[in-house]
Amino acid sequence: MISFFLSLRYIMILASLGVLIGAFLMLWEGLLGLIDAITYLRSGQDISVIAAVLGSTDKFLFGIVLLIFAYAITFGFVLDLSPEDRKRVPSWIILDTVGELKILFFQLIILYLVVHFATLVAETGGMLEWNGLVLPASILFLAAAMKLVATASDHGQSR
């Protein structure tokens, strides 16, 4: 009975594959954004080049975030690695608890939002309205929430 329930964890590989496909789509979008930047560069539109490069960087970064998340799910929760294989896989890929997955998720989303905010500033030429403060405030709130979750996870493991 236990082996049946343990085998159900392989269903999570579908989630990993979905996230991996999303990562490849974002990397493709980033590549297309760089092609647009090259087109803008050839036509002499300097501001558009900066915005296009930052936009494609934003997409590349999100693709990398999705790749890391897919690896973390696969190597942390689906595959049971032998000690030899565990040594060969980079340590940042292997997660031991759901708490570590939550912290990774917070870190990746905060990183993405920071780059997205920089892209937004570049696209608008640095002239944001007051509602442009929503994104930096969200980043601060997420960072605080991440700190709370990390602290709660540390206390939970010490019991």
Task: Walk me through what this model shows.
By secondary structure, this protein is mostly helical.
What is this structure, in a nutshell?
With 159 residues, the chain is mostly helical. It has 6 helices and no strands. The relative contact order is 0.10.
List the helices and strands and how they pair.
Blueprint: H1 2-7, H2 12-43, H3 46-78, H4 83-88, H5 98-123, H6 134-157
Helix pairs in contact: 2-3, 3-5, 5-6
Number of helices in the DSSP assignment: 6
Structural class by secondary-structure content: mainly alpha
Amino- and carboxy-terminal Cα gap: 29 Å
Q: Which sheet architecture does the biggest sheet show?
A: none
Give helix and strand order, one letter per element, not per position: HHHHHH
- State the low-pLDDT regions, or none: none
Outline: globular
Using only C-alpha atoms, the radius of gyration works out to 20 Å
Number of separate strands: 0
Percent strand equals under 5%
Query: Please, what is the average pLDDT?
Result: 82
- Residues in helix, %: over 70%
